[in-house]
Amino acid sequence: MIDTNGNNPLMPYLGRLVEVKDMAPEIKLFRVELLNGGREAFASYRPGQFAFVSAFGIGEAPFGLASTPQRGGTLEFAVQRLGSVTTGLHELGEGDIVGVRGPMGNWFPMEAFRHKDLLVLGGGIGGAPLRPVIQTVLDNRPDYGHLTILWAARHPSLLIFRDEYAVWRATPDTELHLTVDQPDPDWDQHVGLITDLLEELAPSPKNTIAITCGPPIMIYYVDQVLRKLGFAPEQSYVTLEARMHCGIGKCGRCNLGDKLICVDGPVFSMAEAGDLLESFL
Amino acid sequence: MDVITSGALASWLDRLAAESTLIAPRSVEGVLLYRPVTSSADIARDFTRPVLSIKEFFFPATERLLTIEKTGQTITLQQTLPEGKQVIFGVRPCDARGMKVMDALFIETSPADTYYASRRENTTLIGLACKEMGESCFCTSIGGTPDDHRDMDIMLTEVEGGYAVQAVTSKGKALLEGVPLQERPGHLPKQVITASFPFPETAYWPLRFNDAYWEQMSERCLSCRICAYVCPTCRCFDIRDEPLAVGKDQYERIRCWDSCAGEAYRRIAGGHNPRAAKGQRLRNRFFCKFYYYPQQYGPLACTGCGRCVDACPVNIDITEVMSHLAEVEA
Amino acid sequence: MYEPKIIAFLCTWCSYTGADLAGTSRLKTPWNVRAVRVPCSGRVSPELVMRAFDQGADGVLVLGCHIGECHYDSGNHRTAKRIPVLHSLMTFAGLEPERLRLDWVSASEGDRFARIVNEFTEAVRALGPSQWRHVNSLPSVELPNTAPQEVKEAGVGG
Amino acid sequence: MPYTDEIQAKARELLSRGQTACVIGYEAGPRGRVRPAFIYSPDDAGRLVWNRGCTHNLTTYLCQKLRPHGHNGSKPGRVAIVVKPCDSRAINVLLAENQFSRDQVYIIGVTCDGIVEGAGFKSITEGPLQKRCQQCSEHVPVIYDVLIGQPAPSGKTSGEDKDLARLEAMSPVERAEFWLSQFDRCIRCYACRQACPMCNCPTCLYERDDSLWVGAGIRVDEKRTFHLGRAYHLAGRCVGCDECERVCPMQIPIGLLNRKLAKEMQTMFGFRAGVAPVPSPITTILNGEGS
Predict the structure, then answer these.
(1) For C137, which of D167, D221, D281 is closest by C-beta distance?
(2) Quick one: CA torsion of B42, B45, B50, B55, rounded to 10 degrees?
(3) Exposed, middle or buried by CB within 10 Å (0-12, 13-18, 19+), for D141?
(4) Same domain, yes or no, for D238 and D181?
(5) CB–CB of A56 and B296 under 8 A?
(6) I want to staple D100 with a disulfide (CB 3.0 to 4.6 A). Which of B283, C52, D79, D104 is the partner?
(7) Which of D114, D148, D182 is the last residue of a domain?
(8) CB D51: neighbour CB atoms within 10 A?
(9) What per-residue confidence (pLDDT) applies to C157?
(10) Which domain holds residue D123?
(11) Taking CB atoms and an 8 Å limit, are A279 and B274 in contact across chains?
């Protein structure tokens, strides 16, 4: 499951930034072309997995993989500038070298989701690891049922992957709902929390899988609404985040009770998440 | 039994110090620590246990993982693996057990940690059985004994005029080659067991997770890291890059000890901290020792060495926690 | 001849302008001094001074406005109290006292700036290289006790 | 011990009348070692003790306990605290720095004629006094709401700090070597900082993720930077309770740095920390007018 660089799992592969794109204020999309041996390791990573990206000289941090190998050999990461590593990454440009370790963690069981309707809920930068889920459905459209995407951000400018919405919307059997907390004058879509939007849409739990990623507090409240709508915990998946330093189950940092987010997660069904001794909140 | 005389032991140790790095208990400005020694004369013999365990010779407080050099847009990484043989003399059974506990995580759980594994490979442990249990020792409550030889390469037990020698592993046998041993009749002296604390079953711990007890018992915790750093099994770490030379584009990626008792341990870049309360952090420590670690990697992450009991500035006592849980369980 | 590395923290209103004046007046000042321009000598926190020594400075000079002339009224009052305390702490920890100096230079005192800088440089030169950074600490550039195991090349030029 | 009953009675009274929500004092742990105790109910007041093993400076808990908590910043309940004369000066420093207000604490001052060496780590109440106590002449707290014990006249001490004098007499090179050999043992457990009532920054300057002031490793010069920086931050604030030195598992004489700076503050500014609730002179302008 964890592919490592040679024999040393802490040694990163090198990758070159082939594209750095501003997605929103303080959020950039990095596209990385792997240089040494890493291509093999990342040949068949899955939606939901993550990798450590190094800004050399500053450090490394985990990021959800925002791409799928089916769409080409480059890796994509959406990075919000928050701490020292993300700041270091934001200072890099096309042609610069970064380090990549991975792919790490488990993934969304996309095979098990076949022929089911999917409800994808992304909040802010938390939408990034859900993009591979959306892409997988779009690229294998007949295999999946109806796809409903609820995409939220604090402000319209903070919505990520905006240039892809048209394609998502144009795909048959796919709908996209946007919502923001603080609209600007041009905003003509839903205003409010993602939970408000979810309650208004009230999707049926029948033959449906819900997939959520966002801040812990959002995951908590989305789960409450999903339960109210009749979603069983087994029908609901989340991807969790934590501070971590190794990604391979050694550094002890990311445990939730006796589970480690880096190797037992980051993807959990709400049934599994509910069984965790320690709350992710 | 095979016996090495005190004199023969001294010359053997002097030879080992000359041939490889010999690490042994030594007084450093009044503090007993495992430190490299050049002469057997510097080695302390009469002690309960040094302040720090032997883990720092496998999992150092700070170690370099790799070096990074930037030249224009080119990056050169160089892996820096530890080298050289080391022998640790005077290892107590609790510390040797600690290494077995760490092996379960760093070696036996895939992927193996290259740095730890190579140090482990290059190190031989010469144990010294405890003559008696220290005031805060409780290895016997946790499956060990003061003369447990199982986790050593060589075990020494003090007898009249010298030490009884057990070669436990092939690494140990190899190290003993050419060492003069006397065949002596009789058996190893029996050890005195003085401490026995009730030990709550692993399966019982989750039932106590939400107890108010954790908040109460942790109120006096200072959130320092002594308990984790003196512990022979605590292994949490942080990784970061630091500049190597002023004004040059050279960096090292280092790994350093960390502790779940520290306030920022779980805080993420956005500021969210799921373990902001002391009670949550200390609960994590005890659950890690007795529940999480066994669930994740197998062995209990406590060897009963009692270091945390003696070093805690505010007397947070792991045996008191065990006793409390056992009492609630009963 | 041994050339010491000297870091001078100069208040932008007085001392930095004083240094400028020394330059435009073509007064001779040693090149050893690396000037760090700060908004006020009160900005020179003890961490800055310690970091300078940690990173290999042989001497640190803090220059501010004369007391009563601070652009911010009392910024230099704090300097006047803090730097002497830091001086005594660092001396107690083993730094030669001559390596840290606090003084005042106004915008019109180009000659005074030149004199102080020359005096200080000579005093530090006489002491020789600072042992503060290097004593007992790992060498910083060589890779100690380790051998190159594997070299990975990015394979792309800058 | 004679004062134990009085402390217990006071705690019982404060808690049963609802005058304070909590009493912070000392209790004996299961091994007989004295340790901090947090008493919330009059029924638990019997756990409190007073003896020569009561070494901890309990004021280190005050900032956390009295900080407004929750998102609405609700005011926490009033807290009573048992203090020795040295600890009482820490309260003055914290008051001067507006960490909490005077009405938030009920101060149970205890007269003290010294704490024994090894206190807190051993079940011990008799024996030689700690070094700091041998040099201390202050037997009555400087601030209190109730005083337990008889105000004895200030005792006389030699007044001489031999360790300090020995170090001051060394050459700079010798001193540098002395300190490096001491800091070499440091394992960066931060117990010194955590035990200190004055080290109450939410995130220590030396432990920020993006800290430029010191690396995260254990190179000796990094450790020296941390310890000197910490000592400097305590200039004019340290009350000399010496808890930092007591808790150090590596027995690094950290207190020497603090005593040196206390002496300098006395010489330079005629200032002694915590005698009154006034801030350190290095945070104020010259001549002391205002801050």
Answers:
(1) D221
(2) 80
(3) buried
(4) yes
(5) no
(6) D104
(7) D148
(8) 18
(9) 33
(10) 2-148
(11) yes
Q: Is D166 found in the same domain as D144?
A: no
Instruction: Please give the order of strands across the beta sheet that includes B86-91.
Output: B31-37, B21-28, B86-91, B123-128, B154-159, B162-167, B2-5, B182-183
Write the pLDDT tens digit of every residue in D115-163.
999 999 999 889 999 999 988 888 999 999 999 998 766 666 666 788 9
**Cα atoms found within 13 Å of the Cα of residue B15, Cβ hemisphere only:** 11
Domain shared by D11 and D126, yes or no: yes
Q: Which residues of B34-54 are buried (b: 16+ CB within 10 A; e: fewer)?
A: bbebeebebbeeeebbbbbbb
**Chain A neighbors (3+ CB pairs < 8 Å):** B, C, D
Chain A interface disruption, residue of C151, C152, C153, most A CBs within 10 A: C152
pLDDT in the model for residue C152? 42
Specify the higher pLDDT residue, B20 or D68.
B20
Pick from B324, B319, B308, B328: which is nearest to B260 by CA? B308
Q: Which domains does chain C have, with CATH numbers?
A: 6-127 (3.40.50)
Residue D10 is encoded by which pair of tokens?
Answer: 């006071």
Burial of B306 (0-12, 13-18, 19+ CB in 10 A): buried
Helix (H, G, I), strand (E, B) or coil at A109: coil
Residues D174 and D125 in one domain: no
φ, ψ of residue C18 in degrees (nearest 5): -60, -40
**Tens-place pLDDT, residues A124-162:** 999 999 999 999 999 999 999 999 999 999 999 999 999
**Chain A nearest CA to D232, separation (Å):** 27
- Residue of B220, B242, B320 lying closest to D216 (CB–CB): B242
Indicate whether D205 and D235 sit together in one domain. Answer: yes
Structural domains of chain D, count: 2
Domains annotated for chain A, with CATH where assigned, are 13-104 (2.40.30.10), 117-239 (3.40.50.80)
Measured between CA atoms, how close is D14 to chain C, in angstroms?
Answer: 43
* Residues B70, A8: C-beta atoms closer than 8 Å: no
Spans of all domains in chain B: 2-329
Closest residue on chain A to D215 (Cα): A58
Of D97, D123, D148, which residue constitutes the final position of a domain? Answer: D148
Which chain B residue has its CA at the smallest distance from A93's CA? B73
Cβ within 8 Å of D, A 65-84:
83-84
If asked whether residues D144 and D176 sit together in one domain, one would say no
Percent of chain A exceeding pLDDT 70 equals: 98
Question: Measured between alpha carbons, how far is D17 from C85 in angstroms, rounded to an integer?
Answer: 48
Name the residue with higher pLDDT: B246 or A258: A258
Task: Verify that D140 and D244 share a domain, yes or no.
Answer: no
In a domain, D280, yes or no: no
Neighbouring chains of D at 3+ CB pairs within 8 Å?
A, B, C
Contact (CB, 8 A) for A236 and A208 = no
Q: Is residue D283 part of a domain?
A: no
D190 chain-B contacts, CB cut-off 8 A? 224-225, 262
Contact flag D172-C85 (C-beta cutoff 8 Å): no
**Nearest chain B residue (CA) to D197:** B222
Chosen for mutation from A245, A259, A260 (greatest number of chain B CBs closer than 10 Å) is A245
Residues (pLDDT < 50) of chain C are: 135-158
ipTM, two decimals: 0.90
Q: State mean pLDDT over A205-221.
A: 94
Bridge partner list, A151 = A122, A178
Examine the domain organization and report whether D231 and D134 are in the same domain. no
Question: Could you tell me the pTM of the whole model?
Answer: 0.91
For residue B18, give the 3-state DSSP assignment.
helix
Q: Residue D195 domain-assigned?
A: yes
- Higher-confidence residue of A5 and B275: namely B275
The string of pLDDT tens digits covering residues B252-281 is 999 999 999 988 888 877 778 888 889 999
> Is D155 part of any domain?
no
Tokens of B330: 């009963």
